[in-house]
Every structure is written in structure tokens, then in C-alpha cells.
Amino acid sequence: MTQPSSQQVHRRILLINGPNLNLLGLREPEIYGHTTLQDIEQRLSKTAKKHNIELISIQSNHEGELVDAVQHHGLLADSENKIDAVIINPAAFTHTSVALRDALLAINKPFIEVHLSNIHSREPFREHSYFSDKAVGVICGLGHLGYDMALTYCIQSLYSA
Ligand code: DQA
């Protein structure tokens, strides 16, 4: 059977960034780099557009807002507006949030977990993630390029599904 090309099918990806990632560029640049979140969102949006994918970007410092966004875009929106996959950097919620984990499991969409820093080479409390065992994949320690890699994977897998 012929696979639909990226020109024929419209897809949606939800990009979620958790607390303090609005400060990228200003926040501990020796760990998180100098690239701003706006730079990352714009770059990914441009790449996604080339593949006929709409990127919906959300950043919040509030756990409930992220849970609401996942519920809305993943399950409650009209079927033609629902997202197909999630790229998420849960930031500090990585290590604390059962609520955000449960929201991602509730929508039953594939998600990729991204971290700018290598969470395994920092403080011990960062080693545990409430997301990794359910993620399609985890990218960490590659700085802002990790987001591009996650998007590349999504593009390939969405159009070969
Ligand atoms: C982070 C790593 C987390 O431990 C931390 O709380 C963050 C950012 C990262 O991208 O490296 O806020 O998710």
C-alpha cells in the first residue's frame, strides 16, 4: 500500500516545556546554554511546517496548566484538532509530577522526553524521571539540539505509521 506523503496528511505535535524553561538563555547558561526558548520554538515550528506538521508550543511554570493542555490537545479537542505526538521537557516536574505523567498516559499518544542537560550526571535526585519508562525515547545532554532530534524522529515515525 502506498504511504501518504507529508504533503497529503496534516499532523500536529504538541511541544511542552515545564517550569523555568521560559528563562532559557538567562538561566544557568553553563548548564542550559544560551539559546532561548523562543529560538527553539521558532526553529522547530519552521521545520515542522516544511513537513506539513503544525507545532503547538506550550510553556508553563504551573503543573495544572500543563495537565490541562495535555488533556485538551490530546483528548478533549475535536478530532480534527487533536495532536498526534508530544515532545516534552517536563523540567523540574520530571522528578515530581505523577499528575503530568497520568495526563500523558490518559491521552495515549506517543511522547518523547527531552532534557537539555544530562540528568544522569548531575544531582542524584535528577536521575529519576516519572516519564522515561513510558516515553518512546529519551534524549538528554545534547542541549537545544535534542529538541530537533526529537522532532526528526516524530516526522519520520508519523509518516511511516
Ligand atoms: C531539565 C533538567 C531538570 O532536572 C531541571 O529541573 C530542568 C531542566 C533539562 O532540560 O536539562 O529544569 O529538564
UniProtKB/TrEMBL annotation:
CDD domains: DHQase_II
Subunit composition and interactions: Homododecamer.
Swiss-Prot/TrEMBL catalytic activity: 3-dehydroquinate = 3-dehydroshikimate + H2O
SUPFAM superfamilies, alphabetized: Type II 3-dehydroquinate dehydratase
Sorted UniProt keywords: Amino-acid biosynthesis, Aromatic amino acid biosynthesis, Lyase
A Pfam family hit: DHquinase_II
Site (Transition state stabilizer): 27
PANTHER family: CATABOLIC 3-DEHYDROQUINASE
Name of the coding gene: aroQ
Active site: 32, 115
GO biological process, one term: aromatic amino acid family biosynthetic process
Pathway: Metabolic intermediate biosynthesis; chorismate biosynthesis; chorismate from D-erythrose 4-phosphate and phosphoenolpyruvate: step 3/7
UniProt GO MF annotations: 3-dehydroquinate dehydratase activity
EC number in record: 4.2.1.10
Function: Catalyzes a trans-dehydration via an enolate intermediate.
Family classification: Belongs to the type-II 3-dehydroquinase family.
HAMAP family with a match to the protein in the record: AroQ
Name of protein: 3-dehydroquinate dehydratase
Residues at which substrate binds: 89, 95, 102, 116-117, 126
